[in-house]
Write a structure and sequence with these properties.
By secondary structure, this protein is an alpha+beta fold. It is 42% helix and 26% strand.
Length: 487
């Protein structure tokens, strides 16, 4: 079988214009697969890219008829029309690779003319578009899938332009909003959200542009008849080829029922807490009231000089106890405006320690301190309230060690302009089962405690933008850490 056939007539004419060199140059430079088919439908020339596309070498195809290779059934009619002068451009067909794979091929057929205008062959140009066609198929399948999801989901899917105009809205909007998707298209985001939510929307938009990450936001939305419902929405940016935000996709859902249930639960929680506090106050006050009633009756029945002073002293003590309980409860229950001022943390701590040092000495307790070299730990605070917190904690530590021990107080300045104050005692510690209740109003582990000290202390620390943590193990003592913001 010959490798190629002369196609330009006599040898003299071929030598004169050197046509085969031109054909070879054309076949090697073209970016497509090319075959030349003579008037008997036989392959007389193919280029390298033909072999790359279909897997057939020149030895496989040269001299064979085009029907000998897998080809569309309509190829015979096409070749007949091309031989009569007609050209076909970009016919999308499926061809088979030598290994059996199906390829998507765009093929063009045109008549090949000699110098006299006579059709002497058929020129076929092939381009492998399998990848592009597969991408189109995948894109079409994805679009159909997204369309199926968006048209059948109960979530609200919208696409906004950069200026926050609605470009697309899923059919689910009609049931919740009253607007059809067509009515929503062209509306601005401010047309569908409640007026109160503009500030939240601006804040979310700022965060989205700064981070480039999707944002979750809860909004009050307006329906067509001006009713309000709550939506939880994820807003995601869509970037163009310049990595600029081109549009936004939002996916939201109606959470009105959840919000209403949460509000009802919060009301129940408030009622439960109020009931617990009322029961605690009643229990704490009833004990001294019982003593007051009993000693008042004794005063009525006893002689004026018989133990009157002792009874009055007990009555006064019980009244003082009621006063302490009420004052602590009022400071916890009634919010008060705190006047902050600049104060030195070490000075506040030292002042507190000096007040409690006599009590510590009586109980054989040593208070040791460890401060950083820098003494300029300034913070905005209410010094008296911080002293109240420190008094409560140090006093608890002293009372936890009736047989004496050490209370160590240390300061650690963090890099983020925060400072941690650590109070550690050597007491018996607190059982893990009981530790979770510390800070609960009227819960106490002391015989004479009223259970409001830690509750009030935690409230004061929170008002100073701080955090309090208690760690305790039986037999290893208790550690209280308070973290505050410093200047």
């Amino acid at each position: 079988m010959a490798k190629c056939y002369p196609i330009f007539g006599s040898k003299a004419a071929a030598d004169l214009c050197n046509p085969d060199e031109w054909i070879d140059l054309f076949l090697s430079c073209t970016p497509d697969g090319v075959s030349i088919i003579n008037m008997e439908d036989r392959f007389i020339r193919i280029n390298h890219l033909f072999s790359v596309i279909f897997g057939y070498t020149e030895e496989d195809v040269i001299g064979r008829k085009i029907y000998d290779l897998p080809a569309p059934f309509c190829i015979n009619g096409i070749l007949t029309e091309v031989k009569s002068g007609k050209a076909f451009t970009n016919l999308i067909t499926q061809r088979q690779h030598k290994d059996g794979r199906l390829l998507d091929i765009a093929v063009s057929y045109s008549p090949f003319l000699n110098a006299t205008g006579e059709i002497i062959a058929v020129l076929a140009i092939y381009r492998d578009i399998t990848k592009e066609v597969n991408m189109e198929r995948e894109l079409k399948r994805t679009r159909e899938l997204y369309k199926l999801i968006s048209e059948n989901t109960s979530d609200f899917i919208k696409v906004y332009s950069r200026d926050k105009t609605i470009l697309y809205a899923s059919p689910s909007h009609e049931k919740a909003f009253g607007f059809s998707p067509e009515e929503l298209q062209g509306m601005h985001v401010l047309d569908v959200i409640h007026e109160e939510e503009q500030e939240s929307l601006d804040r979310m938009s700022k965060n989205l542009h700064e981070t480039g990450e999707p944002q979750l936001i809860q909004l009050k939305l307006k329906t067509k008849d001006n009713k309000v419902f709550y939506s939880e929405t994820t807003v995601s940016p869509v970037y163009n080829d310049k990595m600029e935000i081109d549009s936004y996709v939002t996916v939201g859902r109606n959470i009105t029922e959840r919000v209403e249930n949460d509000a009802a639960l919060r009301n129940l929680d408030r009622l439960s807490i109020i009931g617990q506090l009322a029961a605690g106050v009643g229990h704490e006050i009833r004990n001294p009231l019982t003593a007051l009633k009993g000693f008042t009756k004794l005063l009525k029945t006893s002689n004026p000089s018989d133990k009157q002073a002792e009874y009055l002293s007990i009555i006064t003590d019980e009244l003082d106890r009621i006063d302490i309980i009420v004052n602590e409860f009022m400071s916890l229950a009634k919010p008060q405006a705190i006047q902050f001022e600049q104060g030195n943390l070490i000075s506040i701590l030292e002042s507190t320690i000096n007040v409690l040092r006599p009590q510590a000495m009586l109980d054989n307790v040593q208070v040791t301190t460890k401060y950083p070299k820098e003494d300029n730990l300034e913070l905005l605070c209410s010094p008296n309230q911080l002293k109240q917190v420190f008094v409560n904690i140090i006093k608890n530590a002293i009372e936890a060690m009736p047989n004496g021990g050490n209370v160590s107080i240390s300061l650690l300045k963090l890099k983020n302009k925060r400072v941690v104050i650590t109070f550690k005692d050597e007491g018996p510690g607190i059982d893990n089962d009981l530790l979770q209740y510390l800070g609960t109003p009227f819960y106490t582990t002391k015989d004479k405690g009223i259970g409001l000290g830690l509750t009030v202390s935690n409230k004061i620390v929170q008002e100073h933008n701080g955090k309090m943590k208690i760690d305790s193990h039986q037999g290893k003592g208790t550690t209280v850490k308070i973290e505050l913001e410093c200047l």
